[in-house]
């Protein structure tokens, strides 16, 4: 009994430890593991019972109480840490402190992730030793943070050649994006490429954007400053199909959006009627008119309570930024805060040589109109008396429309409220536009802002793309798109270089050395 009283606790603890080790080493022998553990537990409890007087006396001692208090504090701190980590895991947030938000996803990507209609699988074939693999894993981790419908798999094609062969991978650093029957392959591991792939594999309906031709409109094929090749490229990246449209052939049935971009010649009466009929059937039109251009489409706009005035917008603010008076700016707070196109849009935009857009105070029945973009109070719209043709304009502050001046407006109208056009037999199915839920119309008093020369200037390109996204009923694409990361370079003058050299390389080390020697010398004397 004395042996058991003196050794039971130690032997029991030893057997408990042995049982824990065996459970990790030979988990398949569960019977033996539980036997050793159970016997050790019985011995340990028996030893405590046989030595209960000593245990109670020990627990009442000052050292044990002090140790217990310390253990209590430690357990409290541990509990707080566990609670904080639990809450952080359930409600974690990330903060990007960089100026350009380089480590955050764009608004467009987040919107697309939050509105994914079905599960998307991303399989990245990157070697384990590939330097860019970690960056890709971090990026895809950000994607998964915003949706539960994204499955991500990382496969090393060299250690798993079977998987690579099954996917037909012939080179490393390939990302396969799949959803349903759709598939896309990405070679560049950046946000723009991945987001565009998500758009492609989750869109089952083709969106076709038609740009009218034959009236001197902006050209999609022109890569110079006056062309629209950049806009076309961005639309195709978002998997729109972009086509030219000859109005004499009518508006095709598959048209998601029709764009009339800065025509210089008037539309024929028959073409005006085609545009009017297209809108009455629930079409979606983006109309951009420059000053002095008579397009003949005024009556069509009037049906929806809009008009592009025969004036030119003058802006003093643009002069303050080194621009021209005829280069009006829409400030970051000049956009409507509720319309989907501009709801989250807070970028300055530039509209070279623009006319004002009038929104009638009394709108036709069923029409809802919104002033999308307005210039600053320091601007005004003065009537154009033909001076634009000469290249010189006399500023007439106080004349015409006082600022803020509306440069863009959007209109909606339910098609069941739209008046029916006169019955006219169609030559073929392509002469009729496909009916949609409502008529949508966006009007700008300028077309230069979305040309190549201004597309990448501040928010000009984003505003153009947002307008087309809303017109095509793809609200999840209405946002700020991913921006390519820009290198942050600090350029120092010669005086600054010398200052930092002497401060950091010379003065600081010498000061530390002198202080150290002084302290050493003082202690040596003591």
Describe the structure in brief.
The chain is an alpha/beta fold. It has helices spanning 2-25, 30-50, 52-59, 62-90, 107-114, 133-145, 161-166, 191-202, 229-237, 269-280, 298-302, 316-320, 460-471, 494-525, and strands spanning 120-125, 150-155, 174-179, 182-186, 207-213, 240-246, 255-261, 284-288, 306-308, 311-315, 329-330, 349-350, 357-359, 367-374, 379-383, 401-402, 406-414, 438-444.
Describe this protein's structure.
37% of the residues lie in helices and 18% in strands. The protein is elongated and about 115 Å long. The two termini are 65 Å apart. The protein has four domains: 2-90, no CATH class; 107-201, Glutaredoxin; 209-386 and 398-420 and 428-477, Class I glutamine amidotransferase (GATase) domain (Rossmann fold, 3-Layer(aba) Sandwich); 490-526. With 526 residues, the chain is an alpha/beta fold. Helix 1 packs antiparallel against helix 2 (30-50).
């Amino acid at each position: 009994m004395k042996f058991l009283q003196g050794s039971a606790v130690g032997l029991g603890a030893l057997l408990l430890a042995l049982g824990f080790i065996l459970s990790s080493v030979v988990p398949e022998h569960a019977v033996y593991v539980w036997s050793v553990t159970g016997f050790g537990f019985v011995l340990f409890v028996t030893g405590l019972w046989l030595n209960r007087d000593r245990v109670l006396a020990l627990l009442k001692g000052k050292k044990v109480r002090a140790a217990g208090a310390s253990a209590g504090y430690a357990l409290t701190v541990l509990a707080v840490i566990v609670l904080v980590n639990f809450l952080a895991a359930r409600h974690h947030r990330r903060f990007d402190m960089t100026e350009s938000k380089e480590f955050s996803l764009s608004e467009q990507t987040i919107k697309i992730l939050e509105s994914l209609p079905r599960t998307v699988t991303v399989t990245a074939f990157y070697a384990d030793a590939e330097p860019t693999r970690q960056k890709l894993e971090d990026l895809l981790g950000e994607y998964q943070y915003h949706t539960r419908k994204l499955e991500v798999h990382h496969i090393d094609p060299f250690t798993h050649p079977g998987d690579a062969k099954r996917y037909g991978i012939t080179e490393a650093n390939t990302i396969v994006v799949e959803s349903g029957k759709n598939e896309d392959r990405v070679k560049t591991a950046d946000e723009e490429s991945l987001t565009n792939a998500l758009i492609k594999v989750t869109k089952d309906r083709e969106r076709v954007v038609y740009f009218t031709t034959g009236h001197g409109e902006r050209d999609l094929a022109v890569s110079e400053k006056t062309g629209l090749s950049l806009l076309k490229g961005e639309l195709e990246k978002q998997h729109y199909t972009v086509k030219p449209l000859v109005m004499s052939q009518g508006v095709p049935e598959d048209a998601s959006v029709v764009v009339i971009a800065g025509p210089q010649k008037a539309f024929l009466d028959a073409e005006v009627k085609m545009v009017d009929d297209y809108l009455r059937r629930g079409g979606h039109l983006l109309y951009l008119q420059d000053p002095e251009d008579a397009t003949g489409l005024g009556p069509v706009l009037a049906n929806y309570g809009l008009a592009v005035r025969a004036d030119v917008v003058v802006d003093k603010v643009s002069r303050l930024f080194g621009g021209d008076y005829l280069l009006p700016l829409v400030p970051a707070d000049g956009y409507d805060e509720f319309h989907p196109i501009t709801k989250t849009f807070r970028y300055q935009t530039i509209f070279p040589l623009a006319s004002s857009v009038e929104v009638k105070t009394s709108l036709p029945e069923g029409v809802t109109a919104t002033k999308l973009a307005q210039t600053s109070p320091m601007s005004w719209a003065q009537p154009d008396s033909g001076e634009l043709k000469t290249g010189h304009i006399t500023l007439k502050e106080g004349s015409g429309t006082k600022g803020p001046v509306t440069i863009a407006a959007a209109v909606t109208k339910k098609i069941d409220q739209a008046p029916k056009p006169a019955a006219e037999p169609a030559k073929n199915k392509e002469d009729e536009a496909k009916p949609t839920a409502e008529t949508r119309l966006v009007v700008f008093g300028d077309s230069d802002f979305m040309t190549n020369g201004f597309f990448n200037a501040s928010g000009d390109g984003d505003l153009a793309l947002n307008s087309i996204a809303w017109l095509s009923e793809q609200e999840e694409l209405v946002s700020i798109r991913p921006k390519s990361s820009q290198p942050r370079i600090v350029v120092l003058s010669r005086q600054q270089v010398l200052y930092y050299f002497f401060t950091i390389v010379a003065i600081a080390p010498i000061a530390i050395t002198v202080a150290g020697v002084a302290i050493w010398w003082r202690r040596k004397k003591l």
